[in-house]
Amino acid sequence: MAKFTKMAYESADDMLFGHAKKPVSYGLGIKVGAGRVIPEVNYAPRPGTEKSVERITKEYVDYISKDAINRAVTLGFPDLQLETEWVAQMGTVPGMGASVVAGQKAITEKMHDEYGINLAVRHTIPDQREAEHGLRGGMDKKFGYPEKFIECCEIACENGADVLSVESVGGKEFADYAVTHGDITAFLFGVGYLGSIDMEHVWTQMVDIAKKNKTIAGGDTNCSGANVSMFMAGGMLDNDVQKTFSAVTRCISAARTMVAEEVGATGPDKDCGYEGVIVKSITGMPAAQEGKNCQCAHADIQGNLMAQCCDLWSNESVEYHPEFGGSSVACWLGPLGYECSLMNTAIATGNAKTLRDLYMASDRVRGPEGYVLAYDNAWKVGKAITEYGDNYYLRAKAAGLAGANIIREGYDKKELVLTKKQLDVLDAIIKELSVLPDDEDKFYDYCVKKYKDDVPTFNPKSYGF
Amino acid sequence: MIDISKIDYSTILRRYDAEAENMDSPEAVAAKMLPSDPVLSEVASAVLYMKFKEIGPVVKKALESKEPLDIINNGLVAGMEIVSHLYAAHVYYLPEIMMAAKVMEVGISIAEKQIPGGRTTKGTVVMHAAEGDPHDIGKNIAAVMMRSSGFTVVDLGKDVAVDDVVDAVKENKPFLVTGTALMTTTMTAFPSGAKKLQEAGINIPYMAAGGAVNRDFAESFDLGIYSEKAPQTPPIADKILAGYDWKKIREEWDSIVGGE
Question: What is the ipTM of this complex?
Answer without folding.
Answer: 0.91
